[in-house]
Structures are given as C-alpha cells and as structure tokens.
Amino acid sequence: MKRSVIGCLLLLTLSAARADHITGGEMHYTFMGINNGQYTYQVTAKLFMDCYSNRRLPNPAFFGIFNKGTGAHIMDMSIPMVRQDRLLLSNPGKCITNPPNVCYDIGLYDFTVNLPPAAEGYIIAIQVVYRVQGINNLTPGYGNIGATYTGEIPGNSREASGPQNHSARFTGDDMVVICANNAFSYSFAAEDGDKDQLRYSFANAYIGGSGGGGANFPPAPPPYASVPYGSNYGAGAPLGGNVKINASTGLITGIAPGDGIYVVTVQVEEIRNGVVIATQRKDLQIRITACTIASASMPAEYMLCKSSQTIALSNLSTSPLITSTTWELFNSNGVSIFTSNSANTSYTFPDTGLYTVKLVINRNQQCSDSSFTTAYVYPGFVPDFSVDGICFKKPTRFIDASTTRYGQVNSWNWSFGDGTGNDRSAQPSPTYTYQSMGTKNVQLVATTTKGCRDTVYKSVNVVDKPPLSLAFRDTLICIPDGVQLKAIGNGIFSWGPVIAMTSPNTATPTVNPVTTTTYKVQLDDNGCINHDSVKVRVVDHVDLQAMNDTTICQGDTIRLHLQSDGLQYAWSPVNQVLNHTAANPLAVTQFTTSYQVLASIGSCTALDRVVVTTVPYPVADAGPDTTICFATSAQLKGSTEAMTFAWLPSSTLSGLTIFDPIASPEQSTAYVLSAFDNKGCPKPGYDTVTVSVLPAINAFAGRDTTVITGQLLQLQASGGVKYEWKPATGLSNTAIANPVAVYSTPSTGIPYKVMVYNEAGCVDSAYIKVKVFQTMPSVFVPNAFSPNRDGRNDLLRPVAAGMSRIDFFRIYNRWGQLVFSTTTSEHGWDGTIAGKQQPSGTYVWVVKAVDYLGSPYMQRGTLVLVR
Fold it and tell me: Is residue 211 scored above 60 in pLDDT?
C-alpha cells in the first residue's frame, strides 16, 4: 500500500500505538521523478522488535521531515504499517552449542513524499520513546533511552544532481548469531541505485524524543544527541576495540564482547563526484549470547606494540566441540618458528617484525576450522594527547603526544564525544568546538607505519567558563609589607587595579597596598572568560591579647588561647606546646610555667605571655588488691589526706564514706576511692582496688555404688586442687582425689565425705555411699515394684555388685515385647512404654554383664508390677 502526502499534517486524532522497546531501525528511498518543480520520493522504513518483548510495533507510525541545514520543520506524516514480517533462527548450525533464541518482528512502512529542491537537503526521521532496557555498551544506570532513525535527501548546494538521488539501501542479512567472546562477522553492506561510491563507518546512535507513556508521537527536529556510551565503548567502537568495520564493504569483523545487548549504528556515505552528498544509517540492538561456536577464533591482529614481545595464544572459542588445537608461528619469510598442540601457550619473539599466527582446530574432523592473523611486534608505541581549551562553543585544541620506538605515527582517528555526528577528525592535532557542556569521552585511535594501532581515552569536562581558582580569597598584610597573589588556571590573566602591583598580567602578581584593597582577576581562555577576586586587608600593627593566667591540675592538658589578628604565631617553651605555631595550641606541664606567644603579620610583631600554675591531684590510696572465696566478704582499707572521699560502686559496699567498708561482691569487682580537697586542683584523685571473687567450688565425690568384699574400688573426686576424705575406712589415701578402696566385710552402706579445696583455700564438700556385699559378683533385681508415683519403689533398677560393666538389662512383657532396656544401674523402668502405663502382672528380665575379674555374667528372672 502506498500513501501520498503533499505538505499535509495528519494530527494525532489517529489511535496512538505504543512505540517503545524497539531494537532497531533503518530507512531508504527511491527518486521517482519531478512534477511541477516537486521532487517525488518513495520512502521505505523498517522498525525491528524482539519477538519475545510482549510489545507492539507502532501502527500508525509518525514520520517528520526537516531541513537538514537549519532543522526547520517541513511536515509530519502518520503512516500505517504495510505489513509485519518475522525473522526466526531455525537452523543455527551443528557447530554451535547452546544456540540462542533469535527472533525479530519487522514492521514495514511505505509512503511517497513531494519536496521542492533545497540547498541543504532534508532529513526524514522517526522516533521512539524507549529502546530495550539493559544495553551493555551504554552508561550504567542511565535509565530508558529512546531512539531516532533517519534518512537523508541531498541538497543541491554541493552537487547539482544531489536531489535526484536513490539512497543507499542496506542489503545485509538481519539474522545473525553472535556468541560472546567468539570471532564473528556481520554485514552492513548496502547497494546504491545511482552507483555512487559508498563508504562505511561506525556512527553514534541517536537518542529519541519525549513522548508520554510510550505513545507514538511526531519526531523532534534535528540535531539529534548521541546515546551515552559507557567506558571502553563509543560511537567508533560500539562493540569495543576488538571489532572493526571495513570502510569499503560494511563488513563488521572481530571478537565479540561478553554476552548482553549492544546498540550498533553503521552509517554509509554516498559519494558522488568526490563529494559526500548524503549519509544513511542503520541502527540495531544486537543480542550477544553465551553460546559457543567451534571455530579457530583469534583477534583480528595481535598488537605487541606496548612493552612485551611475548604473545599469549588461546582460542577465543571455548566450545566443548573442540577436541584438538594446533598453533604455528611464521616469520616474514614464511618460515615456521614455533609449533604447539596445547590449547593455551605462549612464545617470546626474538626480534621485532611482522609474524603470521595460524590456528587449526579439529583437523580432519567434524567442525574443523583454521584461521590466520598477523602479530605486530614493535614495542614502544604509546598513544597520548593533551587538551588546550575546554570552553563551550569555543575552539578546543587536541594536541597529539603519541610516541613510538619503531616507525612513525601516521594516522589519527579522533572522536570528540559530542554526539553531533560531526565530532570527528583525522588530523594529528585537530581543533573542535563543542556544542554542549558536560563530560566528554574523547577517543584517539592512532597507528604507526609499522602497522601498530592502539586507542587512548580521556574525559574532558566542557564548561561555560574556564576553571579558575585562587590560593586564597582574603589575606592580611602590615605596612610596609607586600604579598604575592596566586591564581590557578589555563589562559591569559589580567589583574586590577594595578596600583601598587607588579606583573599584573601573570598568575602571580605582587601587591603592596597601603589601604585595604580588593583585587580582581580575569582569565581569558581563547575568548572564554572567568572572573574572581582577592581581598587584601592592610593594618599598621598587630593586635594581641593572651588569655588570663590560670591554674590546672598537675600533668593535665590545657588549651592556650588568645585574641589576635596575627597571621603567624610562635609559642614557647616549644617542648611543652603541641603545635607551637597554632593560635590556640594544647600545652602539657607538670610545673608552673610562663608561656610566651609572638604574633606576626609580615614584619609587624606583638608579644604577650600567660602563666599556668599547677597543683597536684589529691592523693587517694584504695589499699592492696585481694582475693576472696565465692559468697564471702572482704574488708577494704583505704586512706587519703584529702578533705572528703567516697567509694564506688555502692551496691556491694557496707558504706561509702568510711575508709574500711565491707565489700560483698558476687563477682570480681574494681572499687574506686575518690579524694577531693581545696588546694586548687578542682578534680579528684583516684585509686582502685580489685576484689577478685573465686568461682564456686563444684565439689563431686562420684555416684553411690556397690562392690563385693575383696573387689578394688577406684573413687574419683573432682572440683578442686586439694582433697580430704572422711572416714578413712578401706581407703588407700585420704588426701588425694582418687584413692582406692577395698573391703573385707560387708556393709549396708559406708558414707564418705570429701572436702574439696581450691587454690585460695576455699572449701566445699560432697558425699558418696558404698554398699559392700558378701557374695559372688551378681546383679540384684527386685522381684516387685509399684510405680504409683508415691516416691517409694517407683523405679525398678538393677543393682550391680562386683561388676565392671552391664552390657544390657532388658525387661519383656508376657508377649515377649521389649518394654525397657539399659546398660547402667542408674536408669530404671517406670512401668510405662512411650508414656503409656503398662498393666499389673509378671514380667521377665534378662541381664548380661562382666564382673570386675573380667568374667562374663548372665542371669534372668521375673518381677511383678503392682498397681
């Protein structure tokens, strides 16, 4: 469908479609002829959108036409979509692993327009509010960024036949798979119906307009600003320094950056009779994914042009389909100088020169591939530049400072970062006038006659006036002294008034006024002006009044202070003053001292002094530290000659205003005695005594036990450092923690008491009862028990006599079900299973043990549970 629009405007009464999250666009046109002085053009535009975005292409879309030279608005058009196509990657190839899902919806718009010839020509534009989010080569955190897509119709000022033009038309395949950090090629080739010469280059992508809510809207007039490129990217390097474009073919080749989305804009210049008559642009957001391609992937060239002659070789393709790798290096005569079958290797070249690098993978296998590249080995090349002039709409000069050890620097490709499309140069030291303020990322790509190429980036802050700063803004001098003013900036300085001034056209004039004067300075940087001023106050003497004499406590720090208009100070004695040149320094003294201060303003001086008298602190003695047993007290013994005193803390003391209070702390505590007097030191003297409280003794004699006559019993007490057992019956030693007991006669129970002492002599006690049986080693089991929770006979326990251990003691009910099991006589059965009471009746028990002589013991019997 074609629609003819002749100077008319279709207003926004048509339904607005969302026009955001677009991934690219391009435009071309065909010259159809001349009618009544009007030139007719058939215009075709394409907009690209990711199929998975859940958005819609604009329908209709608004186009605008503007005068290319002046930006004057000519007309707006609302054009319906002719059709929508879909490009889908269906067969990515057998040598690609983890292939991406690549799918584009392409909206096609077609219309005719009649325009009179214009000297400057025309720009046709369409804008969208938002590109896709998260574009990796733009400044992080910049937010949503729109897009502008354009086509240019030539004027007749530079080429008479310019308006009779068929624009260049991009013919490259829009469907491509690019894997992160892999070699790739992507064609932006175009054809021209007029057979004009075509020249390709990367260009800055344009931001969009400001429509509300993502709705479609008429485009704003040119010029169009550049998107904000991030660090290490730019209009000339949208995919980084490892990706280049062939100026003659439009083929992009190189090593892709990491996975993500990157905006790439290519412009093709139409050159007729040696004159660039128009520039057409294609803008795409290219998705690079974490797929891998089994390929022999190397950089376009190896630039060993900085300092090292060692080349590190590794295949940039990390595909798991690569099973073999062969590297080979050749000198300039084609002679092989190095071979390796390692996936990663290195080689140090013995001399400078050009070398060929060959990489072969999967030789004679599936997905075999090979590639060649050149290594430039000429270390010592350092690209650099300086900047002179940084003012808005004033010329800024960029001065090449590149150096090389081999050959000469022979080309310069500048990108000044202004985003105008004309902010480039190939001159060694070009001049450029910025059209906007702010930080500009300037890029210089320099090459040498030896083939070396490198890039340097610098940020330039473009301002509306040159930076100007002063060493000081207000100063004081004393007649007849002078002072040197100091301004900091780049450009031509001029000061005034010039009365009593020398060198008024320098950054550092000297002035010698006799009255207070304000001096103004102007900085002129290529016609860019800034101003500032310095006030010089003039006096004929120094005012100085030191603080009054004072008294301090001996050894304290005091802040000396004064009132003065002096500029410099010198206190003495120097060894008692911290920072003796400060107006208000700190002083530390043990003795009464007279401090002198000299204040000066140039050659004028004044002298004063202050006497600081020292008085000793009141003396307090809290007595010696002591240690007490847990839950006991200590009597403190303090002393002082001061008038008053007090103890702290108060919670565990019997009194606060007596010298010998009783301290009863529950834990170790530091008690502070404060003493006060009226001798001149207003601060108290302090002393501290620490009462350390030993922890409570955890005395333990062991658990009650049973033995048989003749059996050795090892007792074991714990909790202290000294022990005393009572009585001594059967014990080998009553003064150790672990005496051995042996008995010749039976006993119903021998009670032992053990006194346990700590390192301070504190004592606590514990008890143990030993029953002695006159029998063979046995395990005694009661024949009945009544677990009715009356505190008597509620648990049934085995009683082991003469046993070293119980392997098990088990109780079964009449159905053979195990109701209880233990391996110690300390545990007993309470007549329940899982908390459920068992019925009265007869139960069977079985015990297996080992006696103290090591003989096995086995016994069984019955018991009665009584409810």
Answer: no
